[in-house]
Amino acid sequence: MTARRLLPLGLAALAAACTVRELNIGVAPGTGGSGVMKVDAGDGPFTPTPPPAVDILFVIDDSSFARSLQRRLLANFPLFMTRLIRASGLNSLHIGVISTDMGAGDGSVAGCDSSGGKNGILQYTARGSCTTTGLDPGATFISDIDGVKNYTGNREDVFGCIASLGESGCGFEHPFASITRALGADGSPPPAENQGFLRPEAHLFIVIVTDEDDCSAPRGSPLFDTATNTTLESPLGPPGNFRCNEFGHLCNGAPPPRLPPSGNASDVVTLDGCASAEDQGMLIPVATVASQLRSLKSSPTQWIKLAAITGPATPYTVHWADRRGDNLGPRPQITASCTAADASSAAPAVRINQLLRYFSGYSFTIPACVDDYKPALDALMIVD
Predict the structure, then answer these.
(1) What value does the CA radius of gyration of the chain take, rounded to a whole number of Å?
(2) Distance of alpha carbon 191 from alpha carbon 62, whole angstroms
(3) Each residue of 249-277: pLDDT tens digit?
(4) Any idea what DSSP says for residue 149?
(5) 10-54 residue pLDDT tens
(6) Where do runs of H (alpha helix) occur along the chain?
(7) Are strands 203-209 and 364-367 parallel, antiparallel or unpaired?
(8) Looking at the whole model, is its pTM more than 0.70?
(9) Do residues 381 and 8 lie in contact, with contact meaning Cβ atoms separated by under 8 Å?
């Protein structure tokens, strides 16, 4: 049989209408567990037409303990781009970077300001060991169109300079709110720094990189209160990421339990059927975010693709721990759904995986805990 390859990273659906293959990814809207993403694969000789242009937006977690995740992304970025460009023949490219930091609360949460954090603004300054990004003066994103570049040096080095965001961002990660703010999909124009990034004639590819699930809440939400909600008995419980789970997820119709069943810190509860709480929770519904993103293109299923480098949605387990120095009792915590070789880990990304299900084609996840993305990317290059 003639060899036939599918384009990786969301571009396969741009080629032709064809028969269906299946990849196991993510969570279906409104359900828990693993979902199945249907992927087009042609019956005849595969002769893709390169897309006219692609805008790639990387949404990078810069909260505490995210450095290992950023390191893995930077190490795999050359492979990421090689697979994309080699398979598609792509010759018109924008690459932008934003943070998951949108602030939280009244500023009393460490690392989270009350003014919207980085507000979905494209990040374009040199960080880490870089003294310069290589971007042209005034440029806020990478542009390479028919060989005309807005940077000097190579693309990988430029990306490494602007994508090394560090670990000072808000620990209540808001990737969904950051994306919609960056692209002007939330009802307001995008930030001035982002002008020109999103092109009407370009396909949009969004890559979310985070070790926590989305915790996007409306501006002014009480979810992040630290003044009156400080104990296990308070309406929101003590400050911490568990609030994002308790008020953002439902598992078989019920929120994850705040209190251990037997009252002991040694209790462990594994839950099934976990999905976004949608209108029953305090976070922005996944369906709302999907609708906002789809409004950016006239044919969103063909023009918008998503990928996530994050924690698998399962297993979903709650454990408890006593915190030294306080008498609050055992505090609930979500157990990591994957752990990397360097001991870094990622929590079950229920809402993020659910969002991917709203976009057909090659939307997919890569476990945040793997060092080498090559097997996952090669698996997307289906060969007969």
Answers:
(1) 21
(2) 20
(3) 999 999 999 999 998 899 999 999 999 99
(4) E
(5) 444 333 222 222 222 233 333 333 333 333 333 334 344 545 789
(6) 67-88, 155-163, 175-182, 242-246, 286-294, 300-303, 350-356, 374-379
(7) unpaired
(8) yes
(9) yes
Angle at CA of residue 274, ends 270 and 280, nearest 5°: 125
The owner of tokens 């040199």 is 126
Residue of 367, 359, 318 whose CA lies nearest to 205: 359
d(CA 57, CA 198): 9
- Tokens standing for residue 172: 């209540």
What is the CATH architecture assignment of 12-220+284-317+345-370? 3-Layer(aba) Sandwich (3.40)
User: Taking the mean position of all CA atoms in its chain, how far away is CA 62?
Assistant: 12
The two three-digit tokens of residue 92, written as one number: 């018109």
CA 347/CA 337 separation, integer angstroms: 5
CA–CA gap between residue 157 and residue 149 (Å, rounded)? 14
CA proximity to 242, closest of 280, 261, 215: 215
∠ CA 69-150-137, rounded to 5°:
90
* DSSP, residue by residue, 226-260: -SS--STTSTT-SSSTHHHHHTTEEETTBPPPSS-
What are the beta bridge partners of residue 5? 383
Asked whether 313 and 26 are in contact (CB, 8 A), the reply is yes
* C-alpha distances in Å from residue 320, one per residue of 68, 228, 331: 25, 22, 5
Contact between 101 and 91 (Cβ < 8 Å):
no
- What's the pLDDT tens digit per position in 101-156? 999 999 999 999 999 999 999 999 999 889 999 999 999 999 999 989 999 999 99
| Region for 67 from its dihedrals, namely left if φ exceeds 0, alpha if ψ lies in -120 to 50, beta otherwise | alpha
In this structure, are residues 334 and 348 in contact, taking their beta carbons and an 8 Å threshold? yes
Integer Cα distance of 55 and 206 in angstroms: 8
